[in-house]
């Protein structure tokens, strides 16, 4: 592989911004300096022209729908959209069809990704009430972690047997990532509004049905169990301000046993948007109040929340355009997550360095991803070049998701991702994803 020399970039990395050059050889960062001279004719020189160079984003929660739900999405289409959004590595969830709850099914997904993924990839292994034997077979060095649905599950993936749950927590030292919503609370709330409205419940009641109480009950129970068993717990997609008080910011991330994530939609939207967006912003957990949104953002800045992710979960527009009880929850986000966070930078809400910490460095620390998530000598050259002053508007002509829609349609972002490098190879440039695939299976330093 030829060498690539990226010249004159503002390099955003490890809490600082340095203007300089990066030399890449065989997909690995070989040198970082204020100025690097090309020493031979086999170096391809790429002039960044002072644009901002970030580590590739690591998205720790996506649903790419393969196998079994590929009318909505697949690894090929969604990984291309991810690369266009500056996401160079993803961790995909186990609630596909069939579910990823055996080692055999897990390896089948790795095989699909090895042939179709434009980005680097790993998968969560799914826990159920009766697959502890399979959980114990998982190689923690080659799999991202364990996913448990403590609410809002599909198939048989709701883990609601408390004895089994405690046994799982005690039996693995993998990161256990959880979806926390209390099903009993949700069922009671849903029954009230279904009696009043039938199936056509107003969409703005979604955060009342999937309430703050439902989230807090489940999150606090999971944290209590993690403290009791010593398990390594990561709580996905916080949606309430109340939950943020459950998390700690007094120790470095690498030393935390209990961590949290927030998703783009819970930072961007509020319940005031349901009247306009309807089911397009129906997620589980629900988008809640503006106060919740503000508290989540503050907890992110205060390091009580450690990671920003997408929970990318596409459905067809025909599926989303159903009445409340039949419209599925979830939406596509990987292509627009980083531009959305850069919009917050323009608004003065967060620094570029903090965005990189939460989207690149911290997922690598939390999951112990090997040699990714930073711009460092000897690390894989997963890199994203951003023009902070190149406005563009999200529309159907530039959306790359297989489902063909976005909750951000009509939004104009000030920043544009111009180039994405995956393992040192140019995978995306100005709205074009190249056909050649450079994604690799993630490995973990455990």
TrEMBL record:
Cofactor: Zn(2+)
Recorded GO MF terms: allantoinase activity; dihydroorotase activity; metal ion binding
Cross-referenced InterPro entries: Amidohydro-rel (IPR006680), DHOase/Allantoinase_Hydrolase (IPR050138), Dihydroorotase_CS (IPR002195), Metal-dep_hydrolase_composite (IPR011059), Metal_Hydrolase (IPR032466)
GO cellular component annotations of the record: cytoplasm
Enzyme class: hydrolase
Keyword Hydrolase: yes
Gene Ontology BP annotations: purine nucleobase catabolic process
Keywords linked to the UniProt accession: Hydrolase, Metal-binding
Pfam families: Amidohydro_1 (PF01979)
Entry's EC annotation: 3.5.2.3
All copies of domain Amidohydrolase-related, residue ranges: 52-426
Keyword Hydrolase part of the UniProt annotation: yes
Annotated function: Catalyzes the reversible cyclization of carbamoyl aspartate to dihydroorotate.
Family recorded in the similarity comment: Belongs to the metallo-dependent hydrolases superfamily. DHOase family. Class I DHOase subfamily.
Protein name: Dihydroorotase
Lineage of the species this protein comes from: Bacteria, Pseudomonadati, Bacteroidota, Flavobacteriia, Flavobacteriales
């Amino acid at each position: 592989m030829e060498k690539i020399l990226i010249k004159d970039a503002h390099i955003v990395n490890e809490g600082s911004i340095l203007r300089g050059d990066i030399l890449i050889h065989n997909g690995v960062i070989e040198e970082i300096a204020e100025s690097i001279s090309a020493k031979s004719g086999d170096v391809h020189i790429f002039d960044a022209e002072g644009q901002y160079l970030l580590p590739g984003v690591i998205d720790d929660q996506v649903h790419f729908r393969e196998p079994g739900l590929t009318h909505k999405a697949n690894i090929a289409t969604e990984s291309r959209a991810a690369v266009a959004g500056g996401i160079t590595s993803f961790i995909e969830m186990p609630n596909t069809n069939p579910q990823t709850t055996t080692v055999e099914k897990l390896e089948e997904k790795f095989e699909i990704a090895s042939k179709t993924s434009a980005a680097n990839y790993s998968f969560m292994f799914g826990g159920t009430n009766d697959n502890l034997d399979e959980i114990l077979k998982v190689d923690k060095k080659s799999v991202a972690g364990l996913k448990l649905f403590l609410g809002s599950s599909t198939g048989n993936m709701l883990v609601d047997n408390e004895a089994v749950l405690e046994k799982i927590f005690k039996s693995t030292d993998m990161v256990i990532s959880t979806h926390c919503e209390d099903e009993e609370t949700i069922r009671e709330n849903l029954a009230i509004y279904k009696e009043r409205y039938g199936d056509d419940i107003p969409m703005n009641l979604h955060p009342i049905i999937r309430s703050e109480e439902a989230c807090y009950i489940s999150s606090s129970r999971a944290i209590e169990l993690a403290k009791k068993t010593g398990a390594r717990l990561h709580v996905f997609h916080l949606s309430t301000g109340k939950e943020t008080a459950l998390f700690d910011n007094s120790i470095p991330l690498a030393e935390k046993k209990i961590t949290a994530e927030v998703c783009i939609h819970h930072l961007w939207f509020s319940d005031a948007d349901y009247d306009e967006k309807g089911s397009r912003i129906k997620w589980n957990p629900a988008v809640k109040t503006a106060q919740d949104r503000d508290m989540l953002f503050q907890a992110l800045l205060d390091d009580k929340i450690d990671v920003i992710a997408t929970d990318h979960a596409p459905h067809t527009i025909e599926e989303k355009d159903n009445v409340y009880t039949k419209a599925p929850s979830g939406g596509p986000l990987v292509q627009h997550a980083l531009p959305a966070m850069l919009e917050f930078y323009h608004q003065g809400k967060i620094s570029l360095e903090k965005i990189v910490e939460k989207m690149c460095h911290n997922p690598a620390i939390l999951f112990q991803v090997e040699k990714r998530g930073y711009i460092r000598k000897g690390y894989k050259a997963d890199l994203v070049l951003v023009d902070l002053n190149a406005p563009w508007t999200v529309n159907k002509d530039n959306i790359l998701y297989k489902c063909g829609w976005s909750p951000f349609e009509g939004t104009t972002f000030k920043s544009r991702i111009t180039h994405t490098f995956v393992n040192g190879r140019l995978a995306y440039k100005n709205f074009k994803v190249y056909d050649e695939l450079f994604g690799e299976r993630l490995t973990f330093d455990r």
